[in-house]
């Protein structure tokens, strides 16, 4: 049973606010849901950090990643793209011994490779969903070019999609530019985190609060 006395996918907490079950388990998840998840992030640095964290989250719970977030920031130079791109084999070995992060060689090496690919995007041409981005663009602009025309309007957890036409296209484009751990499911999770789509359940206190999407799934005015 939920705190509001039914079997809804929404849980009404002591503060009177309705949240999905996953965001109502621990205070850190509640805080992340209330103050960050789904709010627009467009800048290269912010998008790179979330791309890296979503890659590390693959196969794990988000709570596992969130509770190591400061460790990841310390290990990856605050997710400074240029600094991470300069990491070498010795840095990889040091990170594999760092208990503050997920010690997965493939994901560590992918984060470094993705930093280098992010730098390469700055001078690339033919980027974006319509191929209309060019030199001077960045990772944030590329990712946001895949924003859909509408967003889902899920009334229950089972109605929240895990991929979309746009996430599949974004994954393909990023892979074309050398990015790793960027499958369609991971990219859809990234799009949710960044605000490109709004998958807050109908009735959640966060539904339609991003400034990007109205509660009915149409673009906000």
What does it look like?
The protein has about 220 residues and is mostly helical. The chain has a domain at about 45-195: Orthogonal Bundle (Endonuclease III, domain 1), CATH 1.10.340.30. Helix content is about 45%, strand content about 5%. It has helices spanning about 25-35, 45-55, 60-65, 70-75, 80-85, 90-95, 105-120, 140-145, 165-175, 185-195, and strands spanning about 10, 20. Strands 1-2 form a two-stranded antiparallel ribbon. A hairpin with a 5-residue loop joins strand 1 (about 10) and strand 2 (about 20). Helix 9 packs across helix 10. The longest helix is centred in the middle third of the chain and has 17 residues, at about 105-120. The radius of gyration is 18 Å and the shape is globular. The protein starts with 9 loop residues before the first strand and ends in a 27-residue tail after the last helix. The relative contact order is 0.15. Residues about 1-5 have low confidence and may be disordered. GO terms for molecular function: DNA-3-methyladenine glycosylase activity. Its EC number is 3.2.2.20. Keywords: Glycosidase, Hydrolase.
